[in-house]
Specification:
The structure holds two protein chains of two kinds. Chain A contains four helices and seven strands. Chain A is of the alpha+beta class. The longest helix of chain B is centred in the N-terminal third of the chain and has 33 residues. The chains are: A alpha+beta, B alpha+beta. Strand 1 of chain A pairs antiparallel with strand 1 of chain B, so a sheet runs across the interface.
């Protein structure tokens, strides 16, 4: 090979690695990105069972029920809609009724219940997941004083 | 009073930094020695002022002066003393103070140890450091002032966030910042070189120890943070691909690339422009990380309450520095001469491959971290990008690099012999595969593909040994001569081998813990027994306990193997009284390099409690490997060749460096 061909081969090698990376990123985005929904959105848009989404809202008062073993069921609400959620595992320390929560999982085809495999929490007692807080503020459900009161 | 003096010192530091941002640059252009010399004294002045200011804040914490708003918000008189000290940086304002302190600390190091740098370069470097210092001083004074008072002073503080009341907080942020902010020196060197329009192998030799130092601390900081999250959060995970984690990981990846490209530049004068660009990018990623963590724009499991208005300020700093640096780069880089040529199969070629893979991998992490943010700003749609994305992209892209690592050190500069390297390595590759098989057999279970993952880890370890083996030429000259040969090698050779060995260890830990680990969630009543990782855990019951500023419910477990009790472990749920905030304290038992991790859930009706038990085989390898990498960094740093003005060059140091700079 001449020097020119060699250089070309190197550049082609580098470019193909970058192209592979780009394709991988695009593929991964199509596979593993979870969209964020609140109960009211689900009334408008249909989410197919088996599609991973993030469901956010408030844990409805009086809805938390401990089932068999470590399965817990509760309702996520945003004032407009309600979605029943079941989760197996240990809930975060800051999980409480009336508090904001973000769960990730899929809808069960048979029961139409949301089966969460993760429940998100933060290191803060006034924690409201950002997505939830933004929306609740926009809808006027969020009460600014609530967070400050516990200070 | 001390608090006010501290506040005033910060203002004085700002004034000094402003002067220092301008005069040395003018001095360097005009060749005015007095103006250039100002950089050194000025930098040391700023350091003293900021250090005093930081000391004043620390004092306010130590004596629990709740008339200072920042202390009131983040401290409590009953808190153990060590947390009062570490609590200084356990909040936004204080952590920015630590950031600043470390920044000026590095400036001072350059001022003190940069005696052998050409005067103009040193003046420019310190001036660029002063620009960054000015920006962050303004940020602290205008948006995040920790010295504000409260009137009337409250009698008791609000306590530090319980998750932060841990030894991890004392160590993790300082280490992380030493790394993150240490890259500012590389950035300043790059910008100074662009201002001067001149760059050469000597420049790379001066930059390398700073890169190496910063990289070493960042490695330690990330590993420490990961272990802290692992044991403190009680979720059993050691890496969540969380934006805040990515924020520190991206500068590490870019810094690793910089470390390797600076090597090519030092040895072969090639990749000059690329190295300068990489130095700018690395610190840009550090600043981006600061922005992501401090502005609260991202949802993160690690974020503390943040104020979004500050984000705008940091965003402006980011835009000015990154934008400015890139404009300067675009303008000046074409003036830099291109360096030496080399064949694709050579040490340089291998290092270019390293750089290609690391930068592409960094970019995928960057995209995954920023994409949700950008999408939300543009379309209002909210998405989350989680671990599956990063495993699929970053994980796969890094595989070829891990395969290639052992080859690099065996290839010669300029023109290497791939076939020769293969011949030397195939035995080690076979050994790695065998070790992977043996490991798989012992672990008993898991996917068959795991063998390759494990072998990859062993390959990294054995490859590093192969490097030293062939350098000592043990196979030909025998042990005694071989070791004598090794002893004569420069320390950086050992640094490389040790760090590469560490990479292998970490890879092994990652694959082992992910592929062979087990997780059990179960409801346990007292005296119930459950098996995990070949051990049986018996739940003995709950007991209440009271700590200095918390109450806790502790669960006691007896661990036995083959019917014999060998250990016991406590796991608890705490309630911190001041904030009424519950936390989970996981119980962790270490067996060799593996761990049993017990975390408590909610109590059930009828006296039972939900328990989550993880068996994490060889998980300690993950952090152990990082520690080994860190050790490699320090060994390399102790190489006398890296210390500008080493004894051998003492004969005529001034002339020597000037020549080198030409």
């Amino acid at each position: 090979m001449t020097r020119k061909q060699k250089r070309l081969a190197v550049i082609a090698g580098g470019m193909s690695f970058i192209i592979v990376a780009v394709l991988l990123v695009m593929f991964a985005f199509s596979q593993s990105v979870a969209y964020f929904f609140m109960p009211a959105d689900l009334a408008k848009t249909e989410v197919k069972p088996g599609t991973r989404i993030r469901l956010g809202g408030l844990v409805a008062e009086g809805s938390v029920k401990r089932g068999q073993g470590s399965t817990v069921s509760f309702t996520v609400t945003d004032g407009t809609g309600n979605v029943p959620v079941s989760y197996t595992g240990i809930l975060p320390d800051l999980f409480r009724e009336g508090q904001g929560v973000v769960t990730e999982g899929t809808f069960d085809a048979a029961t139409r219940n949301f089966v969460a495999d993760s429940v998100l929490a933060k290191h803060d007692e006034n924690y409201m997941p950002k997505e939830v807080a933004d929306r609740l503020k926009a809808d006027g459900v969020w009460n600014e004083g609530k967070g400050a009161a516990s200070q | 009073m001390i608090v006010e003096i501290g506040h005033y010192a910060l203002v004085l530091a700002l004034a000094t930094a402003l002067i220092l941002s301008i005069l040395p640059v003018i001095g360097a252009r005009r060749g005015d020695m007095a103006m250039m010399a100002l950089a050194t004294t000025g930098t040391l002045t700023i350091f003293s002022l900021v250090a005093f200011s930081f000391g004043a804040l620390t004092w306010a914490y130590a004596v629990s002066d709740f008339s200072v708003r920042n202390v009131w918000e983040n401290s409590h008189s009953l808190m153990p003393l060590i947390y009062k000290y570490s609590g200084v940086w356990g909040n936004h304002e204080g952590s920015m103070m630590l950031w600043l302190l470390i920044l000026v600390f590095f400036s001072a190091l350059v001022a003190v140890f940069g005696r052998n740098l050409p005067d103009s370069l040193k003046a420019n470097v310190l001036a660029v450091q002063a620009w960054i210092t000015t920006a962050f001083l303004l940020f602290i004074l205008l948006t995040s002032n920790p010295f504000l008072r409260l009137d009337p002073a409250p009698a008791e503080g609000q306590d530090l966030n319980p998750v932060l009341q841990d030894f991890g907080l004392a160590v993790h942020p300082p280490l992380l910042y030493l790394g993150y902010v240490g890259f500012s020196v590389c950035f300043s060197f790059a910008v100074a070189a662009l201002i001067e329009g001149r760059i050469d192998a000597a420049w790379a030799r001066w930059v390398r120890p700073w890169t190496l130092g910063a990289w070493t601390f960042l490695t330690a900081g990330i590993a420490m943070g990961s272990y802290w999250a692992y044991y403190e959060l009680g979720w059993g995970g050691w890496w969540f691909w969380d934006p805040v984690e990515n924020a520190s990981f991206m500068p590490w990846l870019a810094g690793t690339a910089l470390l390797h490209s600076a090597l090519v530049m030092e040895k072969r004068e090639a990749l000059k422009i690329w190295t300068v660009l990489l130095a700018i990018m690395t610190f840009s990623l550090s600043m981006l990380g600061t922005f992501l963590v401090r502005s609260g724009v991202l949802t993160s499991v690690h974020a503390f309450a943040t104020d979004p208005t500050r984000g705008i300020f940091i965003l402006c700093i980011l835009a000015i520095f990154i934008g400015g640096a890139f404009i300067l780069f675009a303008w000046r880089a074409p003036m830099l001469k291109a360096g030496g040529l080399f064949a694709p199969i050579s040490r340089e070629g291998a290092l270019v491959l390293n750089n290609l893979i690391l930068t592409v991998a960094t970019t995928t992490v960057l995209i995954g971290t920023l994409y949700p943010l950008i999408l939300e700003t543009l379309t209002g749609e909210k998405i989350s990008v989680g671990a599956p994305f990063f495993n699929m992209t970053f994980g796969l892209l890094m595989l070829p690099l891990l395969v290639a690592v052992p080859f690099g050190p065996l290839l010669a500069w300029k023109r290497g012999d791939l076939l020769g390297a293969l011949q030397r390595l195939y035995l080690f590759a076979a050994l790695a595969l065998l070790a992977g098989l043996a490991f798989y057999y012992v672990q008993n279970g898991g996917p068959v593909m795991a063998i390759f993952g494990l072998a990859l880890g062993f390959w990294g370890m054995f490859g590093a040994i192969a490097d030293l083996w062939y350098r000592g030429n043990f196979s030909k000259v025998g042990l005694a001569v071989g070791f004598r040969r090794l002893a004569g090698l420069p320390r950086s050779v050992f640094g490389t081998a040790i760090a590469h060995f560490g990479v292998g260890v970490t890879v092994l830990g990652v694959f082992s813990a992910t592929l062979f680990g087990t997780e059990t969630v179960v409801e346990m009543k007292p005296r119930a027994t459950i098996d995990a990782g070949g051990y049986s855990l018996t739940f003995d019951g709950m007991r209440e306990a009271i700590g200095p500023n918390f109450t806790e419910e502790r669960g006691h477990f007896t661990v036995s193997r083959g019917g014999v009790a060998i250990a016991d472990v406590w796991s608890s749920k705490r309630l911190y009284t001041a904030r009424r905030m519950p936390t989970t304290e996981a119980g962790i038992l270490t067996f060799g390099l593996s761990q049993l991790y017990v975390s408590l859930g909610d109590p059930m009706e009828g006296g039972g409690i939900v328990v989550r038990i993880w068996w994490k085989p060889f998980i300690l390898c993950i952090w152990g490997g990082a520690l080994i990498m860190m050790a490699g960094g320090f060994v390399s740093l102790s190489d006398r060749r890296l210390r500008v003005g080493a004894p051998s060059r003492k004969a005529k140091p001034v002339k020597a460096t000037l020549e080198a700079a030409e």
